[in-house]
Design goal:
This protein is an alpha+beta fold. It is built from six helices and nine strands; from the N terminus they run αββαααβββααββββ. The chain has one domain: Methylpurine-DNA glycosylase (MPG) (3-methyladenine DNA Glycosylase, Chain A, Roll). Strands 1, 2, 3, 4, 5, 6, 7, 8 and 9 form a nine-stranded antiparallel β-sheet that branches. The longest helix is centred in the N-terminal third of the chain and has 7 residues.
Length: about 200
């Protein structure tokens, strides 16, 4: 007999953004008929690379909400999804990569011609693969998505965030060790995280 999945509560996101980013590794994220295990995240607070600083108009959601989805565009066409964190400090966690687990035929149809390891190996890729939309911006984290805690957490490593120009020294990128679905780049200077 299988135990029912334990779902994340809103209080999960009220903690330090770096702890939330680490603890999201291994969580299963479901949207509709598709889901995947989160294998990579990045934490953003009030640092120089944070949208709270670099995009104050759209990024203000990071300082005024906790447990809300923050969707934004990059390069004018791709979209990425974050979850806001903390109640007394700006914060959000970028969901960077998933290991797809259910609805693979749907995911492959949304990302045609890609090998399975590239279906969700990046924030814009997983956004398309799960069929997410701009309408999620500002909505509660669990209104359209289901977040299930893992029975066992994977081994986690941390290193510098990628695709940014400022605060590049901060080791606020978290990854499941040896998972082929982690996005490429910035894999040097990784270190293990204590469980």
């Amino acid at each position: 007999m299988t135990r029912p999945a334990r779902l994340l509560a809103a209080a999960f996101f009220s903690r330090d953004t770096r702890e939330v980013a680490r603890d999201l590794i291994g969580v299963t994220l479901r949207h509709g008929e598709t889901s995947g295990v989160i294998v990579e995240t990045e934490a953003y607070r009030g640092d120089a690379a944070s949208h709270f600083v670099t995009r104050p108009r759209t990024g203000r959601i990071m300082g005024s909400t906790c447990g809300a989805l923050y969707v934004y565009r990059i390069y004018g066409m791709h979209r990425c999804m974050n979850v806001t964190t903390e109640t007394d400090h700006p914060g959000a966690v970028l969901i960077r990569a998933l290991d797809p687990t259910t609805g693979l035929d749907i995911i492959r149809a949304r990302r045609p011609g890609r090998p399975d390891r590239e279906l969700c190996s990046g924030p814009a890729r997983l956004f398309v693969a799960l069929g997410l939309s701009d309408e999620l911006n500002g909505r509660p984290f669990d209104e359209s998505l289901t977040w299930s805690l893992p029975a066992r957490r994977p081994e986690i490593a941390t290193g510098p965030r990628i695709g940014i120009r400022h605060a590049t020294e901060l080791p606020w990128r978290f990854m499941a060790v040896d998972n082929p679905h982690v996005s490429h780049g910035g894999s040097r200077r990784l270190r293990a995280v204590a469980p």
